[in-house]
Amino acid sequence: MGLILWILFGLIVGWIANTIMDVHGKGFFKNLIIGLIGSAIGGWIGDLIDFGPIGTFTLSGFIFAVIGAIILIWLLRKLRV
Question: The whole model's pTM is what?
Answer without folding.
Answer: 0.84
